[in-house]
Amino acid sequence: MAIERTYVMLKPGVMQRRVAGEILSRIEKKGLKIVAMKLMNIGRELAETHYAEHREKPFFGELAGYITSGPVLAMVIEGDNAVAAVRRLCGATKVDDALPGTIRGDYAMHTGMNIIHASDAVASAEREIALYFKKDEIISWKDGNEGWI
Questions:
Q1: Which residue in 50, 54, 110, 117 is the catalytic one?
Q2: I need a labelling partner for 82 at 20 to 30 A (CA). Which of 5, 10, 67, 88 fits?
């Protein structure tokens, strides 16, 4: 078991459709813990910094525009192999490839508005968490079930 932290963002489409609770429930039912969470508006500069690796891609402007179009729910999730576990819950980035039962497969209609972001590696999770959270905003806690879930 490798306890990891990952960054997850529920994008404006989740907030507009009022399905944040359903998605949070999926994360928690998997046995993962929310150790930081905040509702926020993302400015253009932060959006471009977050998605800097996509700057030269044709969808960059649309992506940055989408996540700045309304509030997002930014989170730090902790648990066994959290990065891979959350990525499996999310499903494929391309909506047409996202299977039913995954978050994108059940809630997203368009790849450009795929409703959820999840870090793709421990290193990117660390970078993304630092963009959105101060160390004192992350609250690691024990629930007595570690290793049982």
A1: 117
A2: 67
